[in-house]
Amino acid sequence: MCSLWWYGFLKEVVMIAKTKSYYFSLLLFCVFSLVGRDVILELKGAYFLPTDSMFKDCYKGSVLWGPELTVQLKKNKHWYAFASLDYYRQKGRFLSLCDSTTLRLLPLAFGIKYFVPIRNRANIYLGLGFQPEYVNKKSRRGFVTSKRTLWGFGGIAKAGAYIDLFHNFLLDLFIDYSFVWTKKTNLYGNTVTPSRTNLSGAIFGAGLGYRF
Question: Which of 75, 65, 66, 68 is nearest to 40 (CA)?
């Protein structure tokens, strides 16, 4: 029995070691593949201005913020890949005073950017990407509370400029446009018929980043 226990224990240790070595090797591969490439990590803050009239009437505009990673695809080239995650939270206003809704959005974005250097101190860029968006709605009517989560899908177009500051820090000034739709649901209180929701809007903002 004791030998069987030790055999099982050693087998588990070997499996864990193999798993950890796999992830460690993958991490090393990712790190060494980035050597010599331009990598930018930034924290962005922006104002989200919805373009859909019903969404605008219910939730207005609000602050949107989150991190973004931008990585050069090939050394000495102008094409970059980007990935970002943002957070939006806003309370809704409806005709019924009994309705209270809080909407949370988590937009993800994955895509490419093209850089155009300007006098070695700045880069103008254009970008285009895919954007899945997590939607969380919490409604309260009287003493009844309901929750709903779903996903919306669409894309994002980007335009902006990276301006070098000091010690590898940089400033990102940008204007994005997000075009995202959900399936039929009700994000506008209990008095509105469920329908496809347009979460599209313009995003005006700035970010503080560090170039590795």
Answer: 68
